[in-house]
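Job type: complex structure
Entries:
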Amino acid sequence: MRIETALSMAGLAVALALGSAVVSLLAARVPKVVRFAAMPLLGLCGVAAIVAGLGALLSGGAATATLPLGLPWLPWHVRIDALAGFFLLLIGLVTGTIGLYGPAYVRGLEQGRDSLVALGGFTGLFLAGMLLVVLADDAFLFMIAWEVMSLASYFLVGFQHEQAANRRAAFLYLLMAHVGGLSILLGFGVLASFGDGFAFASMRAAELSPLWASLAFGLVFLGFGMKAGLVPLHAWLPEAHPAAPSYISALMSGVMLKVAVYGFIRLVFDLIGDVQWPWGMAVLAIGSLSALTGALFALMQTDLKRLLAYSSVENLGIVFIALGLALIFIDNGHPLPGALAFVAALYHALNHALFKGLLFLGAGSILHSTHERDLEQMGGLLRRMPWTGLFFLIGCLSIAALPPFNGFVSEWLTFQAALQAWQLESGVMRSLVPIATAVLALTGALVAATFVKVYGIAFLGQARSRHVRRARPGPWGIRAAQGLLAALCVLLGLFPTLVIGLIDAVPRQILGGGLPDAGSRGWLWLVPDAFETASYSAPLVALLLVAIAALVVPGMRRVGARRVRRCDAWDCGFAPSTARMQYSATAFAQPVRRVFALLFRVEETQVPREDGGMRHQIKIGDRSWDALYLPLARLVEAAARRVVRLQSGNVRVYLGWTLVTLLVLLWIVSA
Amino acid sequence: MSLPALPLLQQLVVLLAALVLFLSFVLLAQSRLVSAIHAFAWQGALVAAVTAVVAVSGDVHHLYFSAGLTLLLKALVIPAMLHRQVRGLALERHTEPLQRPSLAIMAAVGLVIFSSWLVLPMVAEELAFTRNILAISLAVVLIGFLMMVVRQQAVAQVLGFMSIENGLFLAAVSATGGMPLIVELGVAFDVLVAMVLFGVFFFQIRESIDSLDVDRLNRLSETAEIAGEDRP
Amino acid sequence: MADILSPSAWLLALVQALLFPALAPLLAGWVRKVRARLQNRRGASVFQPYRELRKLLLKEARVAHTASPLFRAAPYVVFVATWLAAATVPLLTIDLPTAVVADIIVLAGLLALARVFLALAGMDVGTAFGGMGASREMMISALAEPAMLMAVFTLAMTAHSTNLGSVIAHHLGDAFVLRPSYLFAFAGLTLVALAETGRIPVDNPTTHLELTMVHEAMVLEYSGRHLALMEWAAQIKLLLYGVLVANIFFPWGVASDPAPASLAMGLAAVVLKLAVLGGALAAAETVLAKMRLFRVPAFLNLALLLALLGLLSHVILEVGA
């Protein structure tokens, strides 16, 4: 496919997303329109984005176009290249499955009081915004698309606004999105003042002094880091993402956070260009902190969707660890490990979009069938919803980075990149990079614990409440969408070499060099450097696993007694256990909570129950609230109280202030 | 200079120095006083071993003597004295868990990286061996300091002080092939006298504030007392 | 190492892979025997674990009413993943195609896969003990993982490789070098191995006391061939860690060419090393007492500290400018 065709396909995707938004306006009269028109349009939009993305990645070139919109002296520029193509592919994959999943899910909302016009309309706008952010080729269009994306998602977070918690989450989200947007705008300002205008092409050509480049980097990192939910600016994320309907949560966690990653890569690696290794150290440190904090807090949650949201913080942390490694290696003159880390970051971003999308859709399907988000009420769902159970298991194994699934590939690549630390000159960096990697290992193990907990509590064991015991499998659309994502998780895990061959166009374009050796030994082998150094053959690992199983299973059947008899659980000979005697989600997390007690703000209280017993309550809070947000809020309030003195109510005093301001401004201008 | 290029005896010095560093970590995190004294004795023995190996490899005769002196003093006499005092103060079963052991350990790891960074400017190739050992010695000194900061118990603080001395001695021996004998004798004597003084102080502190928790020494401050009296 | 993909190399890999499940019960029996002797008991024969496995295999398997299909699949997943992980460890020779298929990070991943299924199986029936065991196992593994990876990193940074064959080859090719980093990594990895294989002082493989069980609590509901597979997998894991420690830190004797003489030599060497390690393990288990669960983090922090010091001493002392 020619790159220009890819650009037109991307344009078509945007148009379809907008079309979906427009069609939804009819939903006030005909609620079915969302199900039968808006959702299929979204699916088509996803397909168009996939085609455009694949086209851009395969052709490897770039195409630009100027839109007859925007300001007179600043028309909107759009551009598609390998980087944009990769993220279009990522958006398209999740959006396409949403098109399949949405209709059945929305059906449940048709009888409710919530406005379907808002749901369908803002979903379309949200997608159009994300696609345009990726396609934008000047700061003006980028910021407009960014704000459209933020605002549309604000309304989606506040969709079920009858609940006060959702309103609060939406407001917090709006606040943070704006602070972040401001920071990005200032970053663009720095870049634009050195370059010649707001077009990306001129920013790319600009020569920044190291100090200004660092300032621009700081602003950009703050802005995109806030959107990506990096610690300590993550507090909005676990509030906002779960509040939206489940497939919107999948879009926000799976896709919107990646758009922030795209912005970071575009601005830092592409527009600023000359990276410096101290930035890499900062990104590495923040990434490690996010990964660890996200994993620990995810393990502590009992609300399934909140848990998944915290796990997004953790995964974005991993992406930024890899990006930090890439910055360090590139500035120290090691392009090959740099490209390896860069590819690892992209691969993990793609993986996270798939498995987090899958898990959120699974959570939505549980919510759809049982109206339950609380893990403590679930149990035994595997037998009630076998397909969802199977797909959710694949999602859990993928996110826990177990071979031969996809999460493992990106983690393996990150480890391999970090292992190249011996090439670095400075001993300090040589020792700090492995320490960050140890944090990554700890994170990986904690994630495994988290998803053992989720799966074990929700899908295994016995149902802990009546409505969960009566759960029914969801409609076929819901299951098919999950199956699609699960299949993608497996494929991306089994054929990493092919995927890397596709992604490789991005580092070739952005860094000027990819991984030339990665695919040189055929699709069977993933070899970043040489066989002697490191190699992983996912297809062979999977094949050997299956082959050994094919020997062992019939072998065992032949040797041993054939029959398997059903009986009551033994449980060390205690009385037959009831569902209430099972380990709860809180209990499962207790050992880790105790070991890492330092990081949590734990409130344990005893509440008397009506029947005379006691109820043990535990609340686990985030220390970042005490340490950062509340002092900041108090500061703002104090400042506001000072300012309030200006407000006397007398119009002439106001006019006086205006006059003084005018005089000062005139003086500044003339000076 | 990479390790395999060094002669075997110098490799041994490197190995022993690394173990001295490890014992500094053990000292820092060990909550039982008696075990901490044992760790300190082992550290002294290792420093003596380093001295002996340097003596063999450089064929420096007076170092044999200082190795013996170190072994006697740091690994036997001072630990024995501390042991007796601990017994005298009935502290054998005393444990003093650190408030945040993992934080202290992480800080110590940070100190190791910091000291390796500090000695980086000595880039000359023939100095690489000295520089690396120096980094370890510096780390031992700094961790000793850290131990004096984070520990409340007076005996543990003395152990920190003594391990600082171990670090300095390690640096002197491995970097310059040892100090002149007379200086070494003087230092050894000083350490011994310091130890005796510490012993006296332990009992004095115990007498006056009924504890060896140095955080309580601030009760002796006059301002605190005046402030206390002013309050009705 | 291009020729390692030849059929003869794969045949050798197959032999090694078969040796692991064949020898694993023997190591377990040896450790038990030595421990019995140290405690002035005569103890069962070293072949007792084989008899136990046979007995379990022939018995009827019973499955709780509340168990899901995952419960019956899990023993196979655990066994197969552990076996494949073991097959990537050079037992006799360093020219191992399976070590190219899966390097040491994949090995850790395969063990994690087995562990996750073990923990899920523990939670499946819905008894209190199963959940307890799963929760504890995941906590212990979470703390062991970074220590293990740091130790591996130290080795990999010395050899510039994560391929186990290359790591051992690098060490064999070097002249005798006293590496402080290897000493620390050895100590750290040994502590991790104790925790991961569920030995005293972290877990007691022979306990059935409710409050102390970790591994046993997870397999409590298993019987018959399912239990046999779980037990066998645990024995393979013990052998795996034993071979890992023995052949990485004491690589002498591992064959670097496929000649029958050097292979026999390799087998003799590894058996000897494992006998010594097994004896040391038995002695340690006799001397030490099992720790309280919340002392285990301190134990694993020590492992992490050792591995970290190994890395730092590698960076500071061994590489130089």
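Summary: Chain C touches chain A through 92 residues (CB under 8 Å). Chain C has a mean pLDDT of 89.
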